[in-house]
Amino acid sequence: MLGYGILIALIILIDQLVKHFIVITIALNHSTPVLSGVLSLAYIRNYGAAWSMLIGKKAFFIIISLVSLALMGYFFWKKRQQILYKLGLAFMIGGTVGNFIDRVRLGYVVDMFQLDFINFPIFNVADSALTAGVIIIFGALLKDED
Fold first, then answer.
1. What are the residue numbers of the active site?
2. Across the chain, what does the average pLDDT equal?
3. Across residues 95-111, what is the average pLDDT?
4. Does the predicted model carry a pTM greater than 0.70?
5. How is the chain classified by DSSP, letter by letter?
């Protein structure tokens, strides 16, 4: 269990450090190419969700985050003998907490990774951890079906 706690803490720490770096190095609503035509680093304040959906619904996102964390904690305990589920949930918990910290502290989420080759929402480390967690759990569900 300690290893998963460390993983969660690392995800949160990396997320917050990257966000801090972006805020102090890139001007708001600007971007800097990292790989031309592929990836840029941007500084965007997201007051909603992906594609800026539900802008201004801070209380809604805080409540959803708390309910989600409670459910993930329950499933983490319930699936405590299944490594893939715990790993996926650890990624999801870390990502949820990372964005939750921003929403409570700032009133918005700092996003920075901009894919230049596709129309896709600008995202952050926490979003990436959430996505990785969902993929891992989906893989665990497929494995369970065998």
1. 111, 127
2. 93
3. 96
4. yes
5. -HHHHHHHHHHHHHHHHHHHHHHHHS-TT-EEEEETTTEEEEEEEESSSGGGTTTT-HHHHHHHHHHHHHHHHHHHHHTTT-HHHHHHHHHHHHHHHHHHHHHHHHSSEEEEEEETTS----B-HHHHHHHHHHHHHHHHHHHHH-
